[in-house]
Structures are given as C-alpha cells and as structure tokens.
Amino acid sequence: MTALADEFTGITTYWNGQMSTVGGTSSSTPLWAAMTADMNGSSFCDGTTLGFVSPLLYDVASSGPSDYAHAFNDIAVGNNDSLGVGDGTDFPATSGYDLASGLGSPKITNPDGDPGLAQQACALVQSSSNPPTVSGVSPSSGTNEGGTSVTIAGNDFGTTTGAVYVGTQAATVVSWSSTSIAITTPSYNAPQGTVLPAGGTAPVTVVTVDPERSSSLNPTDSVFHYLGYAGGTTPVIDYIGRTAGNATGGYEVDIVGSGFTGATRVTFGGVEAERQIDVNDSNITATVPAETESTTCAFPSDSSICQVEVRVTTPAGTSAEDKILPAYSGAIEFTPSGVLSFTPGTEVVAAACEFDYAPTPDVTSVTPKYGAEEGGSIEDIHGTGFNVLTYFWTDFGDVGPQSSQDYFDLSITPTDLFIINNGDPNLTGPTTEPEAQAITIVTAGGLYDVPSDLFALAGQPTVTSLSTHVGSTEGGGTLTIDGHGLIDVEAVVFADDNPGFGETESTAFLTQSDTVLKIVLPGNLPGDTEAFACTETGCSNENPTLDWFVFGYPGAPVISKISPSSGPAAGSESLKDAVVISGTLLDSPVAVKFGNTEATVFENTGAIPGGGNAYAILVEAPPGKAGSTVMVSVETAGGEATSHGFSNTKSYTYKKSAPSAPRSLTAKGGKKTISSSWTTPSSNGGSPITGYTVELLLKGDFKKPVQKVTVSASTHSYSFTRVAPGVKYTVAVAAKSSLGTGYFASSAVVAAS
C-alpha cells in the first residue's frame, strides 16, 4: 500500500508551537493507523473489529476488478528509487500489485456511493470467522540455531493447517488444532550488522486459511526470544541495550543474554564496571566505568571513538570475545534496494558485545560560512568527535523540534560531517542581512553548540551602485559594488536578465564587507548585462537603472562611414530614417554624439558575417540646425574600459525640413475637458514655425482623431471641450512650417471626469 510520504509535500503537523511538513514512513505509518482506526469505527463495521488489517487488504484487492477499482487507486507509472542510486528499473510501478506501490493508494470511501475500502473490509470481517489470537508461547526462548520445540496456545486457529512465522522465517508445523499449534523454530534471521552468536526477539504470527487471517502482535504473549546461549556453562551476551556514551562514564546500560546467574565481574575494555544491579540469568544492569589509560580500545589510533569489548564473568567462565570491526568512514550511500552500503571489513552497527566511548564533539569551522535561508545548502562541519556509530543528528535552529533535526546523508569522517542545512523554518521571506543560526551537534558523547560566529543563514543582498558600468571583454579590471548584505555574497553574476546557470560570474573578491564588495572583473562576450550579487539564498533584485554593466571589445572604436551623411534638421524618429554608422570596435556603444548632442541608439547589430571585425550601429539622429554640419563620434564600453576614449569623427549635415516634434507635451483631464500644453521644438527645420496641429485621439488610435484643431505659432496650449468622461485619450501635437508638418509628440493617456 502507499501513503503520502514525500518530505516536501507530506502531511502538515503542528508540534511544539510550530507547523512543519513531515514525509517518509515516519508520517505514512501513523497516517495508515489513523485511516484504519476511522474504518474500524465507521458505520460499515458497526462494532466489528478489523484486527490485523493487512490480509484484509489483499482479500479486498482479489475480490474482482470492480471491487479493486472501488477500493484502490492503481499506480502504474514511476518507481521507488527515491535515493537516485539506481536507474529506476528495479522496482517500477505497473498495473495491479507491484513492489513500488503495492496495491496502490486507498479509496476509503467513494463520493458516488460505490463500496470503498472501508465498506468492503468491514463486510469481509463480518462475513468471516474471528481472526486467530495467540495467548502464549511455550517455551518463550531457545537457541538462535533454531530447532526448539514450541507450543502456541490461542483461539480461532481453525482445523486446517496454516502457517506460523517466527519473525520473518517460516516455522515447521508439527501439529495444528483450533486452540493449539506445535512447531519447530527456524533459525534466527539476525538483523544486518548483528554478529552471531548473539540473539534477539522475534514476533510469532499465526496465519490461518479459509479465510486467510493473521494474528495481531501481543508483545507479552506472542514473542519468542532467541538466545546465543541455551543452557551451556559459559555466559553469552546477546546485545547491549545502550551501545555508546560519553567517555566520562557513570551511566547505566543493560546487558542482555543468558547464563548471567552468579555474575562476579563485568568489564568494559578490561576496566571493571563500577557496580552491577538487577542481575538475573538473562540481564545485567551495569554502571559504565570512565574511559582511562587502562581501557583497551579495539583501534587505539581512532581518536573519534574507543570501541571496547564488554565481557561478563561468572563462576562458570567469561563470555567470549566478539569480532569488533573499524567504524565505517566516508560517503553515505545506499544500494538500489535502499540498504546502507559500506566498505567490507567495517561496521555501521555496533557488534553484539561492543560498547563505544565517544568524546564530546568539537567544531572549528563550517564551510560555507553562509547557508541558504530556505535550506538545501551543503555544509562541511569540520572538527573532531564524529563517528557513524555514535552520531545522532544535527540541529539547525532550536534544539528539540523535529523540524530542526537533520541527519547526515552525505558523508561522515572523524573530522568532517557533510550535511544539508535545514534552513529557517520560520522564514517568511528573504532577508537582506545574514541571519544568525544556531547549530547543535548531538552524539553519544553529548551535545555540542557550534560557536555562533561560525555559521549564519545568508540573506538576499541589495545593490545600490557600481563604481563603473563598462568593462572589457578580456576582463581583468576591477569593480566596486556598494549595497547591503554583501558580506555573504559568494559570486557576482553578469547576466542580461535574472541570473541563471551558465552565466559569467566572478568569485575573485579583493574586498568584502556588509556594504562594499570589490571584485576582479571576468571576461565576457560583448553586450549589455546587469551585475547581480548572489548568496546561497539568492541574488540581488534586477534594477537596470543601478546595476547595468556593458562589456565591449577593448580599444578605441573607429568610424569608417556614415550613411546617409546628411538628413533632416528635425532629426530621425524611425528606423527608415536611421543613420547607419559603420566601422570597427563599435560593439557595446555607450554614447553616440552628433556634435555635443547625444543620439539614441536603435540597434547595435553585432558582427557582420564575413566582415571580420566590422560592426554597424543604427542611431536616431537628434534634431539640429538646418544647413549646419556636425561631427559624429562614438564611445564604446571597450574603449572606455581601456581609456581609449571616443572614436575618430565623421561629418553629418542637417538639411532643411519640417520642424522637429514639440517638447514637454503634457495633458490633464478636467470636467468634460482635456487640457494640453507644450514648448517650442528644438529645431524649426530651417523655416519659421507657422502654427501647430493639435489632435485628441482615442487611446491606441493614431489615425482618426476625435477632435482636431490648428492654433497659431505663438500658442502653446489648448483645451478640448465636450469630452466623454472616463474614456482614455492621448493628445498629439505637431509644428507646421512652409516646409510641411513635422513629427508629432504624444502625451500620456488621460481621461476627463
């Protein structure tokens, strides 16, 4: 079966005063428990107890295609390789039951009234006999090699022989009745990492047939205890209840096994325990002694841990030594089946008789010093006292809340813990300045607070100014950025829009503080960009008026030709009247001047195919005095960056023409009126202005004026009356002379009241 387990879109939990999202089996298990409780208490069951529900799910699914479709959503796409350690082909989702999604996700009820999982499961229980119940296992313990004869007492076993499982292993059934079953135990299926002859506990489960039902676990009555020792003369340790602690000792641990009656001595690495209490044949509670120079560590060279042998001595002898292996160190990886992978000859779980002394961890640095506020940044916590056998978790933020806890999922060595920062759970939006963030390392050696000056959550910096806005494509110059929150910047990215992957960046910082960042400029292709200051959290917001930066080929630009070399005194306002400036090193123009007047650049076309280092710039010629000749010059980013100044000059002659557009045109709405005003054009085109054409146009319509008038040359304002209220208009004004009507100037959109 499946349940919502995604750690990012899991179930929302309110705990310890805050909301958090929980995913994985830690959330899907209680989610299923809650759904099962709801089904059990629904009107469909009407007081009937579902009991051990797992077999019922398969019974419902096998009832027929229609019943299956009403009770389950069949998941047929995807796989369960959530760790990304395989190619997704080992456990793919398919139609019907599969190992990726089981039977699918549940439909507890259906809004259209079809019988959902709750109704079908309850109906099966009500139509079948009671599930089997185990009330006793005798004897309740035996050797882990198996072969122990055991009688299981209980009810509702039925008369047909079914199956009995001890743990996950099938037992051999000797006899079967409705109230008693005799079996021979299988061998102990030890969990991964357990070194035999240690033992452990295993639940006893009875599975009946006709119908197939399973007994529920009763920890008191249906558990079998496998013992590494089963009646010999020498004590045997099955496991240590607490496998690690601080080197100072002084705390109690339980030692579980057999043959402990009359124990006279318990040692940890050869040092005798301070005291032994609650001694019986299968358990000793001992106080752990401190680690001293007399303590025998299995691997003395490992300063991050002291792995010791725990031994029990009775009048009959001393428990055998166990095989302790070095603790695994390195990257945390998983096999395609999701099992932790480690180097042969090492261990990730303590041996049965092993106890590990752990020092209190100590941290000297966290790299990078600034982590992402929303989490996800990889942090290298460097120090001492890290070990896979004794490490618990790291808290990012307040100690205790589950949302703060992060477990190593990248790498652990005695000196370095690579971990993913959890971020700030209370973050509502990016901050400008870095935000102090507490880090606490929790190990068997104790709790350690990382010094507060070693780590902070990065903010989103603000850029307020640049020392220069131009640079050479070859790079190598310097740029000083002023702003706020610059202390945690990791890179300055040069992009023509929001920064992204593959953009040009600089990480060569000469000076860095909260308000000033001086960098070495990188090389880049020619063109317009913006300088973004970027932290782990994000980059400064786009602001072209402050952070624009242009890269250009180094060297003084050269003009070889201007076409046309003359034009109207009114200037040019469209591409058809544009002036083309050709030459070399003209890429990334910063300024184009006609005399002392700056022109507007329509387009910098870049390299012309086959033209080598030839470039062309299309500009809008500014208005000028008819009959005058001015010199045209160009300055580029590359020229300015390398102090080569403006280009050579070429002449451009202004010819008589209609006037240029009026200047400073404004429009204002009144009660059923729209008033406008303007100033004289910068050029009359070489002939006196004789009047102005004033038009009122609907917004977006520049061909059919609603009202149109002509006023004298001395008039610089006009008010339109009888204007429809609330309708959006623009006012257009053009100057007239004996040479014709000039360019129109247009106002902003306005409406009458």
Overview of the structural elements:
With 753 residues, this protein is mainly beta. The protein contains 6 helices and 63 strands. Strands 15, 17, 18, 21, 22 and 26 form a 6-stranded mixed β-sheet that branches. Helix 2 (54-61) crosses helix 4 (117-127). The two termini are 67 Å apart.
Shape: elongated
Tell me the Rg in angstroms: 41 Å
Question: What do the pLDDT scores average to?
Answer: 86
Low-confidence spans: pLDDT under 50, at least 5 residues?
606-614
Q: What percent strand?
A: 35-45%
In DSSP terms, counting alpha (H) and pi (I) runs of 4 or more, how many helices? 6
Instruction: Sketch the major β-sheet.
Output: 6 strands, mixed
Helix percent reads: under 10%
Q: Give the CA-CA distance, first to last residue.
A: 67 Å
Count the beta strands: 63
Class from secondary-structure proportions: mainly beta
Summarize the structure.
This protein is mainly beta and 753 residues long.
Write the layout of secondary structure elements.
Blueprint: E1 11-15, E2 18-22, H1 25-40, H2 54-61, H3 65-71, E3 72-73, E4 105-106, H4 117-127, E5 133-138, E6 141-143, E7 149-155, E8 163-166, E9 169-170, E10 172-176, E11 180-184, E12 200-207, E13 223-227, E14 236-240, E15 244-246, E16 252-258, E17 265-268, E18 271-272, E19 276-277, E20 283-287, E21 306-314, E22 317-318, E23 330-331, E24 333-334, E25 340-341, E26 354-358, E27 362-367, E28 370-371, E29 378-384, E30 391-396, E31 405-406, E32 411-412, E33 416-420, E34 435-436, E35 439-443, E36 446-449, E37 456-457, E38 462-466, E39 470-472, E40 478-484, E41 491-495, E42 504-506, E43 509-512, E44 516-520, E45 527-534, H5 544-547, E46 548-552, E47 558-563, E48 566-568, E49 579-584, E50 589-594, E51 597-598, E52 600-604, E53 614-620, E54 629-636, H6 637-641, E55 650-655, E56 663-670, E57 673-679, E58 689-698, E59 707-712, E60 717-720, E61 728-737, E62 740-746, E63 750-751
Parallel strand pairs: 6-13, 15-26, 28-37, 39-46, 48-55
Antiparallel strand pairs: 1-2, 3-4, 5-7, 7-11, 8-9, 8-12, 10-11, 12-13, 14-16, 16-20, 17-18, 17-21, 19-20, 21-22, 21-26, 23-32, 24-25, 27-29, 29-33, 30-31, 30-35, 32-33, 34-37, 35-36, 38-40, 40-44, 41-42, 41-45, 43-44, 45-46, 47-49, 49-53, 50-51, 50-54, 52-53, 54-55, 56-57, 57-60, 58-59, 58-61, ...
